[in-house]
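Input set for joint prediction.
Command: fold jointly, output tokens.
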Amino acid sequence: MSLNRHIVCLLILEVTFASGLLYVCLTSYPIVNHKIWKHKQALFNLAVKEENVSPKELRRETGQSCVFPVHSPSLVPCQQNNLSEKRRILKKSLPWLELEATLNASKTLLPGGYHQPLGCASPQRLAIIIPYRDREVNLKILLNNLHRVLQKQQAEYAIFVVEQENGTPFNRGLIKNIGYVEAKARCHFDCFTFQDVDLVPESERNTYWCGARALHHSRELDILKYRIFYKYHFGGVITLNETFFSTINGYSNLFFMWGGEDDDLFHRLLKKKLPYEFSRYPRYTAMTHKNDPHHTKEEMAVYGKSHLRYETDGLNSTGRLYRLISVDYKPLYTRIYVSVNQTEVLTQLKHYGINL
Ligand code: BGC
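tokens >
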């Protein structure tokens, strides 16, 4: 055999060996990966059984920077295939146990409502923050639909339901800021969605995802025959990344009762000249409930002067305004239960010339 033939044979042998090795690696990687993930999951389940486990302790228990048992990313990026434009909304409010069983049939949902697709890598980890009080039926229906949509989109996400204790008027902006702070204390998230409990996405193509702009999802509601509220409406469901949210100092903490905090947030985006966009699949089904009373026109006029206070009223003043009562890693979501310090909020309002 000539020297050239030797070299060619050797090359063929090497290539065959290398591809064999690569094949073994690729096929066994998800199995190994899955085993490690199962182990972390078991540790996590053990840790969440303890009451009042701090995020720090939980992270130590699970040996990672995230309290959820995140598995190492797969080699294959996730694809968003076969997303339907119009999905069937599930409107029945199931008992919790039944809901938990149906949603976790594939066993990929972990305590705290955390999900990571198996077998492919999602490029972003998303925190869904739902401000909540006393809307159990809405919450069940939303979870039944949202988990399905997000899993169809192959998203890696955790759902945080932030519940305000009774006794003080609801403060949606403050509650959303608390959700952001408490989610970040538990894991690194690339992207944050603030989602009203009564709005169900109608399209799987309405991706919960951070692009280069802040995104308003819920532009068109069935109850308004899919007309928009007004051009710069930025309430209901929005998604933005950490940099945007911290640049605008989050939401205002000073809007008690219903409405206004989303308009204020939009002014903050404009003030900071941050780009925004509207979802291409903006349809939502709104579930009915009784609204809290809206602010008076006079209050709105004062609240409207967001540009005078956005640097001091927001994320950087949130810490003084609440107490964490408990954190519960439930099967379908993480419940963050808080009490709001109303006296302190009223003091801050006075400081900005608003007397309620
Ligand atoms: C309120 C917003 C609300 C919008 C649509 C406005 O009057 O200020 O907070 O999102 O109405 O309901």
